[in-house]
Amino acid sequence: MCGIVGYIGSGDIKSRLIEGLRELEYRGYDSAGIAIMQNGKIESFKAVGKLCNLEEKIKNFTARSHGMGIGHTRWATHGKPTELNAHPHMSENSYVVHNGIIENYREIKRMLQENGINFLSQTDTEVIVHLFETEIKRHKELFDAFKATIERLDGAYAVLLITKKAPDTIFFARKGSPMILGRNGKGEIFFASSDAPLIGEAEEVAYIEDGTIGYVTKKTIFSQPDNLLFVPLSGDKLTAQKSGYRFFMEKEIYEQYDVMSDTMIGRVLDNDIAFEELDETFMEGVSNIKICACGTSYHAALTSGYLFERIAKIGVNIEIASEFRYKKPLLSPDTLFIVISQSGETADTLEALKMAKKAGLKTLAVCNVDNSSIVRLADATILTRAGIEKGVASTKAFATQVMVLWMLSLYFAKSRKSVDEVSIRDEIRYMGYVPKVLQKSLEVHEKCKRLSKRYLHGHGFFFIGRDIFYPLALEGALKLKEISYLHAEGYPAGEMKHGPIALADAELFTIALMPKTLLYDKIKSNVEELSARDSTILSISPQMFDLADDFILTHPHKHPMLEFFEMMVVVQLLAMEIAVRLGNDVDMPRNLAKSVTVE
Fold it and tell me: Residue 96 forms beta bridges with which residues?
């Protein structure tokens, strides 16, 4: 959600900023802008819409060989997506970019307006730069003025600020919104919201901690507290490119075979599950589990609820993080608190984790991004190893989250001695088939392409399933909503007759997940009820169903999780191909952001 870049050096400032913002497009945005400082002067450019609009505006602007700049991609939270609301925001001498939300901005804005300051935008961010100019009049040192400004702000923020009064300095502050500082041997300094813009540019990075404030020049890096720890930055820009696929989402669906193998390596052994991240005493004193997550990660959590209770024989409570934060939850010390997040920066999930830590609970993070805020805060972390995921609609991150949670259910079962060794070995054997299942599941891609033209209209979709296929139905509906903008709902199949079946007619499309290994006859009966009301049925199953209008045939398997992962790929591909038919931007759907770092 929103993206920040910053640069100091003797390279091409304009291209450094634009290319950095391009690497952050996956986070979602509706406007973009840059500000470049050279010879004590600041030039700023902003544009609504895609980055190409900003590039068109600056094509005749030539940046000199040395200077600095800041850039931003904005996802509207306060005020509509307009040029005036786009970042950077300016005052008389200074420019600022900001990710997050300033919760007390109305109070600050009112005070500044009473002192004669005029505002150009509807945003919360603009108060930062005007407040800074006000504080300059009260402090001899610019850093003291910046520090006083930040101390007045409530909420979440990652801030970069430049001013004509210090033409060689970028001021920065971070609280609750991610920001990374990078550098290389050429004396270049970089800022970014994630690793992606820094790969191939910075040689080492510091993941700025919450509550850190400071400034950088070409020769100086200063922070309070003095806690910047630089580590080598690994990675290859090629991993973030499309590699011949039409979309990042398509590439990431096809990568699931490889990343699943990465997720399992060293953890799924011949007859055992091993996590070097957890010691043998990790489950001591734990009698139940609470899991918090949002969106796709919440669906992975729901799936794991069935697995933990069925395999590990431990009670599990699944919470939506944004609701958990405000319900005054009962937290007992015998609870293991698990949070799941692709980015590790999801604001609601991070705050839930803080609540659990404050209550003294043992905490575990399942995450894709090392050194993210959630990873640093949790007692222990299992990294999903999905690699960079640039498509806003998550695919491989979901797959690897589910796999990690399945592995954890076996790990906990062994720790609690809740199942016998033979059962654990059987689960591990089937687990080993998953990468191959993911690879073979792609054989249906052409069928999904052909079918997609039949599912472009109507008044909505029902995705239905039972047991672990109910969370998968939720995830399939979410994928379709995110990128096609068609109305879709996921339902437990047995609940259809308790109200939703009233919507059934020929213009209602039902996507039925019908695994042969789990409750097949039950869901078949539910689908028959919908068919009798004339709903259009697309059955996804290894067994033909004569009442289905359309059919995607999956492979026969002997374990429900193998059917789960194969059907997961089918619903991902189907959603993508419907969105393609509709002409939508598959990788960057409207109104959405990849990393949701605000409430």
Answer: 89, 161
pLDDT digits (tens, 9 = 90+) for 101-129: 898 999 999 999 999 999 999 999 999 99
**Is the same domain home to 400 and 494?**
no
Q: In the annotation, is 436 catalytic?
A: no
Give CA torsion, residues 78, 83, 88, 89, to 10 deg. -70
Distance (Å, rounded) from C-alpha 553 to C-alpha 541?
A: 5
- Is there a single domain that holds both residue 456 and residue 499? yes
Q: Which amino acid is at 177?
A: S
Report CA-CA distances (Å) from 540 to 212, 441, 552, 556, 566.
Answer: 51, 12, 5, 12, 10
Closest CA to 295 of 482, 496, 469, 483: 482
Asked if 530 and 517 count as a contact pair (C-beta separation under 8 A), the reply is no
Nearest-CA neighbor of 339 among 307, 311, 306, 368? 368
CATH of the domain at 372: 3.40.50.10490
Half-sphere exposure of 117 (CA within 13 A, CB side): 21
Is 261 found in the same domain as 223? no
When divided into structural domains, the chain yields a total of 3
Q: Which of 2, 294, 367, 448 is catalytic?
A: 2
Q: What is the pLDDT of residues 521-545, one digit of tens each?
A: 999 999 999 888 889 999 999 999 8
Beta-carbon count within 10 A of 385 CB: 19
State how far the Cα of 579 lies from the Cα of 482, in Å rounded to an integer.
Answer: 9
Pair (569, 495) in one structural domain: yes
Q: Is the pLDDT of residue 9 over 70?
A: yes
> What φ, ψ does residue 13 adopt, rounded to 5°?
-60, -45
**Which residue of the set 109, 147, 175, 594 is catalytic?**
594
Q: Retrieve residue 408's tokens.
A: 């954890």
> Does a structural domain hold residue 227?
yes
Q: Which two tokens stand for residue 595?
A: 């990393």
Give per-residue burial for 203-216: e unless 16+ CB within 10 Å, then b: eebbbbbeebbbbb
Cα–Cα dist 345/342, whole Å: 8
Q: Are 228 and 221 in contact (CB under 8 A)?
A: yes
Quick one: 41 and 181 in the same domain? Answer: yes
Q: How confident is the model at residue 502, as a pLDDT?
A: 84
Same domain, 299 and 207: no
Output the average pLDDT for the chain.
92
Say how far apart CA 496 and CA 464 lie, in whole Å. Answer: 9
Rounded distance between C-alpha atoms, residue 512 and residue 519, angstroms? 13
Intra-chain end-to-end CA distance of the chain, in Å: 11
Give the structural domain span for 454. Answer: 442-584
In degrees and rounded to multiples of 5, residue 526 shows phi and psi of: -65, -40
Whole-angstrom Cα distance, residue 241 to residue 264? Answer: 24
**328 catalytic residue (yes or no):** no
In this structure, the number of other CB atoms found within 10 A of the CB of residue 527 comes to 24
